[in-house]
Amino acid sequence: MSWIVLLALAALTDVEAAPAESPPAVAEAPAAGGPPAAAASALQEPTPAEQAARERSQELVSGAPLYNPNVAVHIVQRKPFADRGLRELVLFPAVPQANGKFTQHFGTAASFVYHLHENFALQLTPQYNWYSSDSSFNQELVDKVRQEGLAASTLLLNWAVQGGVEVTPLYGKFAFFDSTLAQFQVVLTGGAGIGSTRHLLRPAAGNKPASYGDTGDKFLGSVGGGFRVQLGDRFALRLEVRDLVYTARVDHVNGCSAGELRQMRDVFDRLTRDQLDAPGAISSQVQVGGACQVEKFEGIDSKRAESRAYDIRQALSLVEEPSSDVLNNVSIYAGFSVLF
Amino acid sequence: MTRRLALWLLLLSVPGAAPAAPASGEDELIERVVVRNRLFDVGGRLELSPSVGVMMMTRLTDHYTLSGDVTFNLFHTLAVEGRATVAYSRQTGLARRIAQQFLERDPTLGIERADDLSDAWEMRGNALAGLRWAPIYGKISLLAELPVHFQAYLSANVGAGSFHRQSLVYCRALLSRDEGTCSDWLTESRIAGMASGALGIRFFTSQRGALRFEVRDYAFQDTYLVNIDRIVAESGGVTGERARAGITHLVLFDVGYAFIF
Questions:
Q1: What's the pLDDT tens digit per position in A30-40?
Q2: Are A109 and A92 in contact (CB under 8 A)?
Q3: Are A163 and A193 in contact (CB under 8 A)?
Q4: In chain A, which residues have their Cβ closer than 8 Å to the Cβ of B8?
Q5: Does A66 touch chain B (CB under 8 A)?
Q6: pLDDT of A75
Q7: ipTM, 2 dp
Q8: A3, A311, B195, B257 - which has most CB atoms within 10 Å?
Q9: Phi, then psi, of A140 in degrees rounded to 5
Q10: Is A148 exposed, middle or buried (0-12, 13-18, 19+ CB in 10 A)?
Q11: Which of A9-18, A27-36, A284-293, B131-140 is least confident?
Q12: For residue B14, which residues of chain A lie inside 8 Å, CB to CB?
């Protein structure tokens, strides 16, 4: 057992580590004033059983008298499972946002981790948010006081891909209810990548779902930390908190600038409801750049059963006064992984 | 026993997922001695723990707390605790801006009747009692020669708290519509029952102390006025109906030190 490093061996004299109890094999001293027979018995040779117990208590296991009940051993044990050179595939089935002030996200993420060294790895993490919408707090502000967060502060993250590094500087083990042992590592991650954003244009109403406008891809950074609990040599559980940080500036919706949206609004104001439903009703009457996706503001939205042109005013209100913010999307990543 | 059996069945149902099984009897002995035998056993001992807390995310209110815990460890995994907290609380800048901008809207031109906002109560203090359950005991290697022992725990408490609330829409004396200023917002105070739960970890620094970190949720019933006639309110009249809303949660990050006797 050379892999065990004994760092400190609390000997029999270590009062703090050793409970104040006597080894069972040691004969007790006679009490003051006790009968002479008791004193005489204490001076007798130990019985074979007591002698065997004494010898066992002095038996060394990996250099430590582990059978001695008065010895507490503090060791740092080498990890029973080596990570170096292994690949790890992590699935985070549910990733809820933990700091949703104006927005709320729920998603699913996966992560591929290549362990270059025992405590250092490269990681790539794609994430898709299958729910991203205004928070109940933001909706309450709209409903009760006709206010809401700035456009940049209420930007929603559709998906993100970020890559970076992972370090595991701390290693430990714990016992659950004195019965089940588990090894764990503290995991720190950092990375950078891109994310796709959108903004709510019109909230859901009745059977009509909400409509959203694409606000472009944003550069993002990521920092996080958590735990990885080892289950055997092939599986692990992970619980992490990661903060996706991205700068949010809303100056285009579906690729269209404020000037282009003003043109569309003017056309929208001139047309009747039936004319708005016609294909190309907007695009045929405006001069916009190639990046502006006019088709997303015309035709019939089958889910809402009405013209997409009704989104033009909301989109214009978002970009008429461009806003910017630095958003922190802090989420909890709970999942499991396979090492191979 | 049933819990242990269930855990093993769950783990064994996944091939290769059994917890790190010792390879030999010698390894098993080492595992038992090193981790299961607790170097820091708190069973039967009393603790005094001062701590400070800050809110993890603010919306309408912000809180800073100073708490004191008296805990008696019935066993090394279970303790009874009493906790008293005083809090410095205030409305956030966001709340003040919301109130100001809402006041700038003339009620005669729109939103004549309004509902107050939820989760605007500020906690001023509380007294709680409950249990702390610490089923996990472990050690971690901070540096090569510094193994740190820790306990992870769950805490659940009930008790009563003192609360204060300043309305964000009920102004009883308008100063300036243009500037959105009010000289007399409606305020309320009350004492009410509450509950608290925490998830924490503490690192033993010696047999007599531990540094602890926890995430603590204070939960209490929210209540506010709805259907407030703003014109009546601004003229000094009484208006609005009491609504019992949901539960307000104040989630704080607490840092403290436990003195163990």
A1: 444 444 544 45
A2: yes
A3: yes
A4: 180
A5: yes
A6: 53
A7: 0.78
A8: A311
A9: -65, -40
A10: middle
A11: A9-18
A12: 231, 235
Q: For chain B, what's the residue count?
A: 261
Inter-chain residue contact B169 with A144, CB threshold 8 Å: yes
Residue A337 to residue A86: CA distance in whole angstroms: 12
**Cα angle value A197/A321/A269 (rounded, 5°):** 90
Q: Compute, in degrees rounded to 10, the torsion defined by CA atoms B126, B127, B129, B133.
A: 50
Separation between Cα atoms, residue A62 and residue A6, nearest integer Å: 9
pTM higher than 0.95, yes or no?
no
Q: How many whole angstroms separate alpha carbon B83 and alpha carbon B81?
A: 7
How confident is the model over A46-62, as a mean pLDDT? 77
Quote the strand ranges of A203-309, DSSP E: 211-231, 235-250, 300-301, 306-307
Q: Which residue of A has its CA nearest to B39?
A: A17
Please indicate whether, in this complex, the C-beta atoms of A146 and B111 are within 8 angstroms of each other: yes
CB contact under 8 A, A74 and B135: no
CB atoms closer than 10 angstroms to residue B159: 17
CA B128, CA B145: separation in Å to the nearest integer?
A: 40
Q: Which of A268, A333, A328 is nearest to A294 (CA)?
A: A268
State which of A64-73, A74-83, B159-168, B244-253 shows the largest mean pLDDT: B159-168
pLDDT at A116 over 50: yes
Tokens of B71: 């805990």
CA B138 remoteness from chain centre? 25
Pair B139, A173: CB distance under 8 Å: yes
Query: Which residues in chain A are closer than 8 Å to B16, comparing Cβ atoms?
Result: 232-235
Q: Which residue has the tokens 């204060």?
A: B164
Q: Please give the average per-residue pLDDT across A204-228, as a whole number.
A: 89
Selecting from A1, A77, A232 the residue whose C-beta is nearest the C-beta of B19 gives A232
- Do A4 and B30 touch, CB atoms closer than 8 A? yes
User: Is A174's CB within 8 Å of B56's CB?
Assistant: no
For A248, A265, A322, the CA distances from A203, given in Å and listed in that order, are 21, 20, 21
pLDDT band at B144 (very low <50, low <70, confident <90, very high): low
Instruction: With a cut of 60, say whether residue A184 has pLDDT above it.
Output: yes
Residue B257 corresponds to which tokens in the numbers above?
Answer: 């030190």
Q: What is the mean pLDDT of residues B86-95?
A: 94
- C-beta of residue A175 within 8 angstroms of C-beta of residue B35: yes
Interface test with A, best of B76, B140, B154 (most A CBs within 10 A): B140
Contact status of B98 with chain A (Cβ, < 8 Å)? yes
Whether residue A178 has pLDDT greater than 80: no
Q: Under the phi-then-psi rule, with left for phi > 0, alpha for psi from -120 to 50, and beta for the rest, what region is A206?
A: left
**Mean pLDDT lowest for which of A171-180, A234-243, B172-181, B199-208?**
A171-180
